[in-house]
Design a protein that fits this description.
alpha/beta; Rossmann fold; 5-stranded parallel β-sheet; 13% strand
Length: 477
């Protein structure tokens, strides 16, 4: 079975790459379109993929996430003939192993392939779920599987970790999981909510104080940084930390020493730092409200948690998990009706897992005495979302027309997008993704990026629209 897949429309380059892989004693398949690549990835387990950017039926960078989520979780090297710094940045951010320019030397190509394969085999040798306890985290989606790899990496190290993601995605739960699977699991896990820290007392809370250091300091107090000695200090909502304390805390991170308020002597703390935020800290750095040097210190390991909207298939598992928890707590046997799952899948979940768990608890209480949770037990906004989805999918009977032969239908000639996609072997999912992107690009151009008009025209909620735009790589003004 082949180890490597080469996706490039240049037949000569494909032949050359196959020969180079043979020198490494690797078998390689080559294809010339994304449609052929999709079929190959469905039929074979590849460890490494070389991917061109400009292909006859699409852009390689746009296909990158789908390739990375293939069953074999291959490493991907972007191979293109045109230098594009922005494209390189997007590729690396999306998870590409490397970005090589054509023509790339044989030596460079071989070295890249050897390193990528070594990393891949080490990564796949033991599943994260076998090496760490993930029993408190629910999810089997591809995006969560990628997070498990990062969580496992963080648990095996003592480096600083930055966890980012929307509100309610489970950042503190991930931080606790890392702590309880690390060498510091016998130490304290000390959470600090940076958003609620009183500006005047923040140094006292973090570093402690001596008796008489200020009005009301009637006795010595040990700060949370000291409490976390030999354990983990978790800075939640670190993006809300005041600039003045950021400078002080940067030194603490570097030296692991600090001076309690009112004390003339420094003390030390051997803590491991995990930070979390729902803010874009790179943007905050650009706006000069967050220190660049502190950000560099925080994100030695960066775990980006996906929103619930991006976790295909996980909503059902999470809903069942929460209802089972409640059933054990109250000593009741309760299940979810199939139509309830459909209603849950129709909702955008701006509050993510936290909102889903709260919704399941509310539904559980409303279903008092019933053995099954039905859509009626959900909130009105969730039932409305489900109803809208059903109406959008069901064409009114009075608007239906008699079947027409495909060959006689207007717009279905050989030049129509649908026919072109079919002839190219594009899957329905791939075609829908392409059409969705074209629609969003047109919507953005028509409204000149006015988000309110875009929401009005598209019929999407603002949070869902933001998610779609981000997935399509469209940035608002």
């Amino acid at each position: 079975m082949a180890n490597v897949l080469i996706i490039d429309d240049d037949a000569h380059l494909n032949e050359t790459m196959v020969r180079i892989m043979a020198r490494l004693q690797l078998e390689a398949d080559s294809v010339r379109t994304l449609a052929e690549a999709r079929r190959a990835l469905e039929q074979n387990d590849y460890e490494l993929v070389f991917l061109d950017v400009r292909l006859p039926d699409g852009n390689g960078l746009e296909a990158l996430p789908t390739i990375l989520e293939a069953a074999s979780r291959p490493e991907v090297v972007i191979l293109t003939g045109k230098g594009d710094p922005d494209g390189a940045e997007l590729a690396i951010q999306a998870g590409a192993w490397d970005y090589l320019l054509k023509p790339s030397s044989v030596k460079q190509t071989m070295l890249c392939a050897e390193r990528a394969l070594k990393y891949h085999r080490q990564k796949m040798s033991t599943a994260p779920s076998e090496t760490i306890d993930l029993s408190n985290i629910v999810g089997v989606s591809a995006k969560m599987e990628a997070c498990y790899e990062q969580i496992s990496l963080a648990a095996r190290s003592d480096s600083n970790v930055l966890i980012t993601g929307e509100t309610g995605t489970g950042k503190e739960l991930v931080a606790q999981t890392i702590h309880h699977n690390s060498q510091r699991k016998n130490g304290e896990f000390v959470p600090v909510d940076c958003a609620s820290l009183n500006k005047g007392l923040v140094e006292s809370v973090l570093f402690g104080h001596k008796r008489g250091a200020f009005t009301g300091a009637e006795r010595d107090r040990i700060g949370l940084v000291r409490v976390a000695d030999r354990g983990t200090l978790f800075l939640d909502e670190v993006g809300d930390m005041d600039l003045s304390i950021q400078k002080t805390f940067l030194r603490v991170l570097q030296e692991r020493t600090f001076r309690p308020v009112g004390d003339s002597k420094e003390t030390s703390s051997n803590f491991r730092l995990i930070a979390a935020t729902n803010r874009d800290l790179d943007e905050d750095v650009a706006q000069e409200v967050f220190r660049k040097d502190l950000l560099y210190r925080l994100k030695t390991i960066h775990i980006k948690l996906p929103s619930l909207r991006e976790r295909e298939g996980d909503i059902r598992l999470l809903a069942m998990f929460r209802v089972n928890q409640l059933a054990r707590q109250y000593g009741r046997k309760v299940t979810l009706a199939p139509e309830t799952f459909e209603a849950l899948a129709s909702y955008d979940w701006p509050g993510n897992v936290r909102e889903l768990f709260a919704a399941m608890e509310t539904a559980f209480i409303k279903a008092d005495g019933a053995s099954q949770i039905i859509p009626r037990h959900l909130s009105s906004r969730m039932r409305i979302a489900a109803t809208r989805a059903q109406v959008a999918m069901a064409e009114p009977e009075e608007n239906q027309v008699a079947p027409v032969a495909v060959s006689n239908m207007p717009g279905l000639g050989s030049e129509a997008p649908g026919m072109q996609a079919v002839e190219a072997g594009t899957s329905l999912k791939g075609f829908k993704t392409d059409m969705e992107r074209h629609y969003l690009e047109s919507l953005w151009a028509f409204t000149d990026g006015d988000i309110k008009r875009m929401v009005s025209i598209s019929g999407c909620s603002q949070s869902h629209l933001y998610s779609l735009l981000k997935k399509a790589g469209i940035s608002l003004k």
